[in-house]
Amino acid sequence: MNTIVYGVPLSPFVRKVLLTLDRKKIDYTNIPVTPMEPPEDFLAFSPLGKIPALRDDKLAISDSSVICEYLEDRYPDPPVYPHSMIEHARARWIEEYCDTKLAEVTGPPLFFERVIKRLLLEHEPDEERVQRNLNETLPPVLTYLESQVPDDHFFNGGLSVADFAVGSNMLNARHAGFQPDAQLYPRFSAYLQRLFQHPLFAARIDADAKFLGE
Ligand SMILES: N[C@@H](CCC(=O)N[C@@H](CS)C(=O)NCC(=O)O)C(=O)O
């Protein structure tokens, strides 16, 4: 059975899984379901009703971090988690921080307002909410990431789930017209530039453009 990923690729969590599959050169089919209109049997393998979910010949599971770890165990080469105990824990922490905190400040008050509302709901964004976020809640998160990102290359030297989690969320911020100020966040800006130029991200940026009708 082919590997199937359920979830629209614009979701940062779905995108993290697709990047892991792409990195490992695993063939898959993406079924772009939204949590608002899930297929009939969706809750059977995603009991929380969230995307992404993955199904293959061995199992059906949900949650992007659980899925990425499963893919790493099943297809270890090339790795998307660092091998050293310390670097592994660090990559997992950055992944968790981005899935929780970066997603909170780049998702609902930015990407949802400026992109999803227009695309799916045909509503205008609440720019007051967007500006409040850009001025108050987003900057401390960028300051933290500025202190964490590597000076050159990526989190794993090669690429890791930490890079996929940072990049997936920041790509949605970019789709919503936001990029960090290079004067305030020089390391983070340079890191993002490297990341988005990487062929794996460049391919996702192209796929997103088609999805967004750009
Ligand atoms: N911890 C989950 C979070 C997934 C998640 O929140 N996905 C969103 C879409 S971006 C969703 O399905 N939301 C619907 C809901 O919360 O009911 C993961 O890493 O997969």
TrEMBL record:
It holds the Pfam family GST_N_3. Residues 84-214 form the GST C-terminal domain. Signal peptide: none annotated. Gene3D superfamilies: 1.20.1050.10, Glutaredoxin. PROSITE patterns: GST_CTER (PS50405), GST_NTER (PS50404). InterPro entries: Glutathione-S-Trfase_C-like (IPR010987), Glutathione-S-Trfase_C_sf (IPR036282), Glutathione_S-Trfase (IPR040079), Glutathione_S-Trfase_N (IPR004045), GST_C (IPR004046), GST_Omega/HSP26 (IPR050983), Thioredoxin-like_sf (IPR036249). Residues 1-79 form the GST N-terminal domain. This is Glutathione S-transferase family protein. It comes from Biformimicrobium ophioploci. The lineage of its organism: Bacteria, Pseudomonadati, Pseudomonadota, Gammaproteobacteria, Cellvibrionales.
